[in-house]
Amino acid sequence: MSQLQARFFTEDKRYIVDDVPFSIPAGSEVQDLSNVINKLLEANNASHSKVEFDFLVRGQFLRTSLSIHMDTEGSYDKTARIWSVEGKAVMTVAGHTDVVKDVAWVKRDGLTSLLLTASLDQTLLLWEWNSERNKLKARHCCRGHTGSVDAVATDPTGSKFCSGSWDKMLKIWSAVPTDEADEVEEPADRPRKKQKTQQLGLTRTPLMTLSGHNEAVSSVLWCDSEEVCSASWDHTIRVWDVETGGMKTALTGSKVFNCISYSPLCRRLASGSTDRHIRLWDPRTKDGSLVLLSLTSHTGWVTAVKWAPSHEHQLVSGSLDNLVKLWDTRSCKAPLYDLAAHEDKVFCVDWTESGLMLSGGADNKLYSYRYSACQTDAGA
Amino acid sequence: MEESSSSSTRSAAQTHKIKEKEPQKGGKKRTKAEEEEEEELFNFKSKSTEEEEEDEDLSDSEDSIFSGLEDSGSDEDDDDEELSDDGDEEGLDDGELKLEQTQQIGIETKKETEETGETEETEGGRTEKAKQEDEYVHDSSDEEDIRNTVGNVPMEWYRDFPHIGYNLDGKKIYKPIRNKDELDDFLDKMDNPDYWRTVPDKQTGSDVVLSDEQVQLVNRLQRGQFGDANFNEYEPQVEFFSRDVMLHPVTNRPADKRSFIPSLIEKEKVSKLVHAIKMGWIKPRRVEDDSRGRYYDLWANEDSSILARHKMHLPAPKIPLPGHQESYNPPPEYLFTDEERALWEQQDPCDRKLPFVPRKFSSLRQVPAFSRFIHERFERCLDLYLCPRQRKMRVNVNPEDLIPKLPKPKDLQPFPTTQSLVYRGHSGLVRSISVSPSGQWLASGSDDGSVRFWEVCSSRCLKTVQVGGAVKSVAWNPNPSVCLLAVALDSVVLILSPSLADRQVVLSSERLLSAPQEADANEGAGPVTWSETEGEELNHGIRLKIQHPKAVQQVSWHAKGDYVASVMPDHSSNLQVLIHQLSRRRSQNPFRKNKGLVQCVSFHPVRPYFFVGTQRSVRIYNLVKQEMTKKLQANSKWISSMAVHPGGDHVICGSYDCRLSWFDLDLSTKPYKMLRHHKKAVRGVAYHRLYPLFASASDDGTVIVCHGTVYNDLLQNPLIVPVKVLRGHEITHDLGVLDVTFHPTQPWVFSSGADATIRLFT
């Protein structure tokens, strides 16, 4: 069970507690924290009556669990880690037999949350993480891809997820954990016993396979609950209809796409490619090959782009030139900030809901950045 | 008769003597007299000219002037007779007569002066003058010749009469008595100095001696000059007509009317001609036809080359004319200063501006012999001998035009341009790299004894296999359904199964490796031994070991993935190439003869051909017919590497003498194109599987990417354009880039270098 170090401050002199870090379960909610404070106050002052406290974490009211402020990271040591925003590794998810390429949360509310890891071993694992007890359980092993799974994305409702793989396929899976394993047709001559022992969790098969890409799929995302967008090494971005399983539009570029990001606020796609440019696309155009804008400042491949969840014009990008850049699309000539924290290639960037930027790189570090002050907090 | 004649001659002689004396006497007097005469004459002349002007042609009047002088002629009557006899004198002009008469006046006056004596000369002359002047005053032009009144009739009418006319008084004028015979005449001719100027007067029949003035006048007239000596015939002419357009016309006569109306006569003539032409009487002139060879063309068969040679005659070069420097006394500015002289002495003889030093001598006499004369003559002879005999037709070719028109590299995209990723991890130079057929993995073999597997897109090393020896060559199995890597090190070829692919693929490669073992027995004692690995090596993924008798330099897969060829370069043996079959675990030596040091081998991508690159040539063998089909001459000293086009019809060879040769197998056995872009030895060459690209790696640390479009049309030759020089590798130990290979699907190129890195250029 994951524990958090926490200090409690207050302006009200009546409720001051000792300024020492307390170890608190990560899954604690407001009620739990209130109880902790009341207990402490009772210990100091017997006449203390119970008070319901509100908690501010970094200027935000704490509503649910502390773990909302945490993020996950997939890494090349075949594990995924769950980090709290304070920079501590909460949990290490170890189950894959090969490199973890991508991770995604399915749902993060309550004590148990679901997360997905995609790996080079051609499987996706659906994990159930009980934050209260900090216990992790592999619920499903999603098999079906014949290449390394490079990208995974959960749909907005949390009921389905989509994965993109080196085998040029996109697959849609159900994200709802069940207790029954799907039927898998095994090759006859395969030594079944051996495989069974290696399996983690119940096998799950894809609901739907979307094929059409000529090269490896490098990035997938959900535009809305019916549309999946995928970027590939075959120089195209394709938009798929999940209901029918057909392709809706294709945007053709001239270089390999490494990553895409969609912002529901401005309805634009941002793509990062191997030619150092970030391009903005409008996925609604039918002919599709229209680049609205290209942001050029990186000197290496752009490996990650992400739109800000709360800002219409901001996006963050990571590149092989060790830089993370924060862009405002209204000034396309130069980025707002160059975040030069990494000492090696940057592979992924993300935003937290609270507006922090995260970046992970080949220097085995996860950095988080606060936009307003542009300070960095180093992860392990 | 004789006596008389002699006496007469004597007398004549005496008289002559006397006459001779007289002039001598009067010689001194005469000078004065002559002067006076001249004056008189001038006066007279001026008057006579006046008279002439007045009287114009009236010659008769003049005679009247002399009418009073008829007596004077009596002294010389003898001569008159002669005159009358001479018919010649008749032809004289009136002008001449006039002169004669005037002369006569002069003579008479002379005689008078002589008679009057010396003292009275001047006075007498003056009186005479006065008298004459008076005469002239009364003279009139109408007066006839008063000496003879017969008038202007032919004098021969009086031939038979003793007289020749009548004087004013009506008395006969008798002819002078002619007593002179021929002898007298001759003597007279001999003795009389004035004989030549003595003329007979026709009117009176007397002889008249012409004065000097008269003789001069006659001479002038005979020469066609003006009679008056003072007349200037070259007086400045007053021009009345000039080239300037005058305000008033020279003539103001209006144009005639006839100049405006057509001439009737001409019209008549023309109408006659027209009528004649109509009737056919007049025919146009016939044009002579020259074509039938009326004239022989002398130059028709002239050899044009001879003409051309004449035309192209080049004069021998001229010696430049001597200037001031060559002078023995040059102006001081041409003489050398000390500095110039020192400079001249320092300079090379061929660099000198002047071949000599200008020197100054006070006189030409002091100029010494020219020491360089022989030398200079020799040089001149050389010039003449070596001067161009033919005009060189210089063709004006713009060097730009000779460069073949190649498309711009910009239009030939995509091709790798920038370095994107560096794969670091090896500690020795990376000799060989290979990309998996899916394009996801990259295998590299290094001198540090390890084979590493890299993920292409993230440059992460996923796997390191220590094989225990410097890896010479790695080659990924081109069959996408199996995942195997052949590694050549020392004398072993290892087959690795990196298990980086789909489980199905891994299984199928396992199946291929765990082949039926019965082949082993058949093989017996071959040159190679196959063995399966166990334990630690098996865990690392090393599955098979093929032990060779010699060091293996290169491995190369067949496109189907079952056969792998290994190269063991050896000069002395025919066991240089072995082809192994994985599924049956069998090896064979395809060649019985040693045909040179084998450098590299390659399978044809689709057809059963086998390319063997030896030191200088590439041999192509047909594996089915078991014979050599072609031998490509590389024109280079030492082939280092070879790559076969995915279409199979083109081969590129890199050589250690910096060249890259492209062979078109359909075209010739000679290289279609030689590219000499590298500065140092070419170590590796590669074709792209899909894009029309090829690359070459060299020891100068560069990878040169070229565009090479191959057309299906046999008539069109491949288009080869170098598009990019990729730099990035550092040169270590004089080794630059050792191997180059393309990504199977993207236009990316990988290069491995001696600096222990692998670089990806996109």
Present the secondary structure layout.
The complex is a heterodimer of chains A (380) and B (762).
Chain A: E1 3-6, E2 22-25, H1 30-44, E3 56-57, E4 60-61, E5 70-74, E6 79-84, E7 89-94, E8 100-107, E9 112-119, E10 123-130, E11 135-143, E12 149-154, E13 160-165, E14 169-174, H2 192-198, E15 202-204, E16 208-211, E17 217-224, E18 227-232, E19 236-241, E20 247-252, E21 257-263, E22 268-273, E23 277-281, E24 291-296, E25 302-307, E26 314-319, E27 324-328, E28 337-339, E29 346-351, E30 356-361, E31 366-370, E32 376-378
Parallel strand pairs in A: 11-15
Antiparallel strand pairs in A: 1-2, 3-4, 5-6, 6-7, 8-9, 9-10, 10-11, 12-13, 13-14, 14-16, 17-18, 18-19, 19-20, 21-22, 22-23, 23-24, 25-26, 26-27, 27-28, 29-30, 30-31, 31-32
Chain B: H1 2-55, H2 59-65, H3 77-85, H4 94-116, H5 121-138, E1 163-166, E2 172-174, H6 182-191, E3 198-200, E4 207-209, H7 212-222, H8 264-279, H9 304-311, H10 338-346, H11 373-386, H12 399-402, E5 419-424, E6 430-435, E7 441-446, E8 450-455, E9 460-466, E10 471-476, E11 485-489, E12 492-496, H13 503-513, H14 518-523, E13 529-532, H15 536-539, E14 542-547, E15 554-557, E16 563-567, E17 577-581, E18 586-588, E19 598-603, E20 609-614, E21 617-622, E22 627-633, E23 639-644, E24 650-655, E25 660-664, E26 673-675, E27 682-687, E28 693-698, E29 702-709, E30 719-727, E31 737-742, E32 749-753, E33 757-761
Antiparallel strand pairs in B: 1-2, 3-4, 5-33, 6-7, 7-8, 8-9, 10-11, 11-12, 12-14, 13-14, 15-16, 16-17, 17-18, 19-20, 20-21, 21-22, 23-24, 24-25, 25-26, 27-28, 28-29, 29-30, 31-32, 32-33
Helix pairs in contact in B: 1-4, 1-6, 4-5, 4-7
Give the tags.
heterodimer, A: mainly beta, 5-stranded mixed sheet, 4-stranded antiparallel sheet, B: 762 residues, 15 helices, 27% helix, Ribosome biogenesis protein WDR12 (chain A), WD40_repeat_CS (chain A), repeat (chain A)
Distance between the ends of chain A: 19 Å
Structural class of chain B: alpha+beta
**Average predicted local confidence, pLDDT of chain A:** 72
Report the major sheet of chain B: 5 strands, antiparallel
How far apart are the first and last residues' alpha carbons of chain B, in Å? 159 Å
Task: Please count the helical segments of chain B.
Answer: 15
* Count of β-strands of chain B: 33
Major beta sheet, strand line-up of chain A: 8-9-10-11-15
Beta strand % of chain B: 15-25%
The helix fraction of chain B, in percent, is 25-40%
Computed Rg of chain A? 22 Å
The coarse overall form of chain B would be elongated
Let me know the largest β-sheet of chain A: 5 strands, mixed
Largest interface: A-B, 27 and 20 residues
